Amino acid sequence: MSEKETGTLWTRDFTIITAGSAVSMFGNAMSGFAMSLMVLDYTESTLLYAVYLAVFTIPQIIVPIISGAVLDRFSRRRTIYTLDFLSSILYLIAAFILAGGWFSFPVFALYVFLIGTIHSIYLVAYSSFYPLLITKGNYSKAYSVSSVLETMSAIMVPVATFVYKQVGISPLLAANALCFFLAAVMETRIADKYENYVELQKKTEDKEHKGRMVLRDIREGFDYLTGNKGLTAIVSYFTVSAMVYGATNVLTLPWFRASFENGEYIFMVVVGMAVVGRAVGGALHYRMRIPPEKKFRIAFFVYIVTAILEGTYLYLSLPLGALFCFMSGILGVTSYTIRVSATQAYVPDEKKGRFNGAFNMLNTCGSLAGELTAGWLALMISPRLVISGYMAFCLLSAFVFIWTRRREVAAIYNVEQ
What we know:
18 helices, Growth Hormone, Chain: A, mainly alpha, single chain
């Protein structure tokens, strides 16, 4: 009997990909926050900070769709470790350049654009390969592990802030290069036995018209998504949600820095409580089982309550705001675990790349719209009011997209994975 059939989550290969993703997540969290601080320090502009975030986001509009179609016919495993090796090289080069004190925002924007392109391909490859390594019946538990790791990587944010204040950005980028290299080495050790979809897709391969074949695969991916009312509703809601959180990503850190002395530290404490909440929630989900018939109603409740919490905490005292963030973190990991485990178990292996590519592209469009419009609106309106307005829109979209299609969405959510 193969490992896939035993029902044991912690197989050799699942352990490897978990360890590899943990290393790269920790390195990325450390360097990513420091790069944000560097942009704010050099430019002293919320608008340019929004441009920096947007430049990272822009390649994720088109690239996921193309890469999703290609990766449904190609080894996702090989793509993952190749991109990690490439990322290691790029971060090492940036560390050497910035060590000399030279900085140009236009050049840095081009570099971030390249990193964003690699990141967008990697996300599709990883999100489509990861579920292939999960044994039957363990989807919810596996994604709770993934969520906890992603959450715990935020521990590196205060470390990044301290190191950045003391020695600058270069050591952090060099450390991230090492993390990507170690992750890639580990990922090469994953067995080459999970990608049976490659052979299946060869039956429909058009070797003489590969460009036409990619376009056809892209169209089939969208046809699959739009032909399923439940998936369409889920993707539509999370596109709006991505727009809302794109806005908060642009405005929250600058608001704390403008409102408090050493505001980045207060930001880490208050918003960091959401990280603690996600860690607690992830640990609970690893140990407990949500009855399948209750998943939809729990998810919908979470969508409503988190919008209220996130839209109001900036108006409260710091301790109460931190409590709201903690509650939002627990609820957020619940939403993530239900949604991602349900959709990845529901979508066939040979269509995962195209589905994840379309999902990532639409979420990126939403995030980009939120980043750019929020940066512009904050020039005229209080950032707190802008965030509250976006959260109210997110709450409304939960009713428009999810509740009106509750039967179809419940058919995807209310299943034992």
